[in-house]
């Protein structure tokens, strides 16, 4: 079971981003319907959305925002990308790390480039990288979304990646899928035949299935207080 393997090796993973979570210099950002502030933010306007996110960080004297694996979010109503079926997608399958554009992204363990793409729809991932890893012969994948365009320039499928290697930087809107700068970090045990893309949000009815496919990324990140 990949969850048990991730727990076993948790202390050995390299940081994905250059923040020291032990300093507690981060803010958990709430994008659920329990946050009434979201009703006052014009989420379709990426600049205003970004002003809200980074205004919250400044007010809290935090250098980075985090959230929210398995979170039932309302912010996806901003984009038709999440409303393409009768049941909208609203359950977040990764962990978001909100910080300045240009923030470096590192691979937490060795692997290879499985695939990459620029998913350029409004509200989508923008530039995206998927890495393939193995722990004790157990194959799994890590996804990095909302990157800079430059992050894709020197990649090729099968490219070897070392533990701790710089692989990307946070993108700026509109290149990053038109979001406030952040990294969407997600784990998958099966890519369902996809390349360069994988759902980062699922419907309520698919929640159990996708949470089984997508273990908690905080098993690698190790951010205090984020375990579900």
Q: What is the distance, rounded to the nearest whole angstrom, between the alpha carbons of the first and last residues?
A: 18 Å
CATH structural class: Mainly Beta
- How big is the Rg? 16 Å
Look up the CATH topology: Glucose Permease (Domain IIA)
Q: Main sheet: which strands, in order across?
A: 1-2-4-11-8-7-6-9
| Inertia-based shape | globular
**How do the SSEs run, as a string of H and E?**
HEHEEEEEEEEEEEHH
Structural description of this entry:
The strands form three sheets. The protein has an eight-stranded mixed beta sheet. It has a two-stranded antiparallel ribbon with strand order 3-12. Strands 5-10 form a two-stranded antiparallel ribbon. The chain is α+β, with helices and mostly antiparallel strands and 228 residues long. Residues 78-84 have low confidence and may be disordered. The chain is globular, with a radius of gyration of 16 Å. The chain has one domain (2-221): Distorted Sandwich (Glucose Permease (Domain IIA)), CATH 2.70.70. It is 14% helix and 25% strand.
